[in-house]
Amino acid sequence: MRSPSELFSNLEVTGQPFATAMQHADLLSGLLLLGALLAAGSRSIPGGGRDWLAMMIFAAAGALGGLSPEVCADEISARCRAMEWSFQLPFQQYAHIVAGILEFGGITVALLLAFERTRGEQGAAARVYRGVTMGAVVAYPLLGAAYLLNLLGGVMEAVFFTGFTIIVLTQLLERTNPERCRSSKPPPAHP
């Protein structure tokens, strides 16, 4: 990346060094997360179906972003940005933008649902969801300012991608925790 204001999506623009590898990494990570979430199941934790669905949207949007890389670097090219705003670029550019919005929206909804689901709990997952939610309350306005001012967007994205990774790992660990999974099954019926 040439600037801290450049977004990570610019690394996938055709013609950039390693663009194909970045596109494939996006696609593969989305597909692997979809597979992991499907394997863990929507009912693996009590009341966790809605945040599981939001995580599925996040994963699918990540894969879509890899399938539809941007065609030009809108954060570092004024010409590209002007063409983007006047809808003169191929559909693929806008599909990538929509995928990014769905990705951020999906994981944000998943975080809020997980935060609400674990409210009042004292376990590690509940503490992680509380901490990341508090961080998001501070970070989202900063991200919005970075995008609007075209300043430090790459730095803010790095912060968010770190948070996303924490949420993904917490979701998967929570969903595959044998103790948590056992508590989600109804007790055996007595004759």
Notable traits:
mainly alpha; 191 residues; 69% helix
Poorly predicted runs of 5 or more residues: 182-188
Number of strands: 0
Q: Give the CA-CA distance, first to last residue.
A: 66 Å
- Tell me the structural class: mainly alpha
Mean pLDDT comes to: 89
Number of domains: 1
What proportion of the residues form beta strands (DSSP E)? under 5%
Short description:
The protein is an all-alpha fold and 191 residues long. It has helices at 19-40, 49-67, 78-85, 91-117, 124-149, 153-176, 178-183. The termini are far apart.
Describe the overall structure.
The protein is an all-alpha fold and 191 residues long. The chain has one domain (8-181). The chain is built from 7 helices and no strands. α5 runs antiparallel to α6 (153-176).
Sequence-ordered SSE layout with sheet pairings:
Blueprint (H helix, E strand, L loop, with lengths): L18 H22 L8 H19 L10 H8 L5 H27 L6 H26 L3 H24 L1 H6 L8
Helix pairs in contact: 1-2, 1-6, 2-4, 4-5, 5-6
